[in-house]
Write a structure and sequence with these properties.
The chain is mainly beta. The chain contains 1 helix and 5 strands; from the N terminus they run E-E-E-E-E-H. A 3-stranded antiparallel β-sheet has the order 2-1-3, with no helix packed on it. A two-stranded antiparallel ribbon has the order 4-5. The relative contact order is 0.25.
């Protein structure tokens, strides 16, 4: 069987920020842990650590900082 992995962003549920990126096949047993959600990232330019995940989209950290 061909196993393909994808990039997932690990999101802190409380802050909605990306705290890690992992490679995972989306099928094997793995969990980001309590209080975190894994979201598949199809565009490698998205979901850098520190970015925000809100309403189904990633917002670059520098865009969040400049808006404050």
């Amino acid at each position: 069987m061909d196993e393909q992995t994808y990039t997932y962003a690990v999101i802190d549920d409380a802050t909605k920020s990306v705290v890690n990126r992992v490679s995972w096949d989306g099928v094997s047993e793995w969990s980001p842990g309590t209080g975190f959600t894994a979201v598949r990232v199809d565009d490698p330019a998205e979901a850098g650590i520190g970015d925000i995940y809100r309403d189904g989209i990633f917002i670059h950290a520098d865009a969040v900082t400049s808006a404050e």
